[in-house]
TrEMBL record:
Record InterPro entries: L-rhamnose_isomerase, Rhamnose_iso-rel, Xyl_isomerase-like_sf
Keyword Chaperone attributed: no
Record protein name field: L-rhamnose isomerase
Classification via PANTHER family: L-RHAMNOSE ISOMERASE (PTHR30268:SF0)
Keyword field contains Manganese: yes
Gene: rhaI
Keywords, ordered alphabetically: Isomerase, Manganese, Metal-binding
GO function term, MF aspect, one: L-rhamnose isomerase activity
Amino acid sequence: MSIPTAILAQLADQVIELPSWAFGNSGTRFKVFATPGTPRTIQEKITDAAQVNTYTGLSPKVALHIPWDKVDDYAALRVFAADLGLALGTVNSNTFQDDAYKFGSLTHIDPAVRQKAIDHHFECIDIMHATGSQDLKIWLADGTNYPGQGDIRGRQDRLADSLAKIYARIGESQRLVLEYKFFEPAFYHTDVPDWGTSYAQVSALGERALVCLDTGHHAPGTNIEFIVAQLLRLGKLGSFDFNSRFYADDDLIVGAADPFQLFRILYEVIRGGGYGPDSTVAFMLDQCHNVEEKIPGQIRSVLNVQEMTARALLVDRTALSAAQDAGDVLGANAILMDAFYTDVRPDLAAWRESRGLAADPMAAYAASGNQATIAAERVGGQQAGWGA
Ligand code: AOS
Ligand code: ZN
Ligand code: ZN
C-alpha cells in the first residue's frame, strides 16, 4: 500500500522540537558514560540539533533548559540558531538542583524560597522574550517522601498562588505549560502527579496555561491515548514530552519501547485536532542518550514519530466510524490495525528524496563523517545538566 499524496502533504506540517540536553552526556545514578564529540557549550548543542534537522527536515526547533543553557546574550544565541536554520523553542525552568529546594520550590512553606523559585521563572520569561520562545515549561520536583511529612493540601494552595504570579508575567503570545509526574525524585507524593492536577491548576490560571504530557510519566498500564483525547476535548493539551519507557521515567528513544502505543497516541492527537497547521500542540522530545551516540539517537527519534504519524494518518476514519456505530467490534479493530501494520518506510524515503532530503537519514548521517569530526574537535563534553 502506498501512502496517498494528500496524506504525504500533511507530513510537511510536522515540527518536532529537540531538547538541548539530549546532546549532553547522561546516564543513571550509577554511571554517566561520556560519548566522544559531546558538546561543550549550548552553541555546540544547537549545532548538533541542526544536523538532525539537515538529515530529517523535521526538527527546526531546539528547547532550552535554564540554567543549564545559560548565556550572557540570548538575542545573539537566537541569531546563532537562526543562521543554522533553527528557532529556539520551549524554555524549561529548573527548581530541582538548589539546596534551597530540598523541601519544595513553588510549594515551599517559606515565602522566601517560593519567591526565589518565582523569580527564577521571571528570569526564564525574560529569556523567552529575547529568544522568541513561545512556551515556558514547568516541571516540579516538589513532593514528599513520607506520609505526614507535608500538608499536601496546603502545598496545592501555595502552588496555585505561585503559578498565578508566574502566569501574570508571561507575554500575550506566550504560554505556560505544566508537566505532571507521579513519582521521582519524591516518592510518597508529588505536587503535580497527574493530568487532573495539572488540568486543575492551569485551568485556574487562564487560557494560555496548558498541560504538558510527558509519555514517560505514567504508571504502567495507563491508557495515555485516553488522556490525550480528554485533554484535547477540554482544549488543554499544550505540549508533549515524547520518550519511551520500559520501567520508570527511562527517557529512552520515543517509539522504541512500544511503537503501538505511540501510534495510538498519535491517532488520538490527529483525531482530536492536535495535528496540522491549525493545531497549537507542541511536539517536543524529552530524552537522554546514555549509551548510544546522541545525534543518530535524535535522528532515530524524530523518524519514529514521523513513521507513526504517517501510520496514524492512514487510519480510514470514515470506515472506522461506520464500524464503531454498527457495533462491529472486530471490524473496527481491524481498520485501526491495518493502518498500524502498514510499512510506510519506502514511501517516506521517496517523499524525503522528493524534498531534497536524504532517503535514509540514519545512513546519510553515518556516511557524512560528522561524528568523527566532532569527536576529534571536542574534548571535555558536558553532562546533560547535572554537572553543568
Ligand atoms: C522530569 O522528569 C521531566 O521529564 C522534565 O521535563 C525534564 O526531563 C527535565 O526538565 C530535564 O531534566
Ligand atoms: Zn519531561
Ligand atoms: Zn521525565
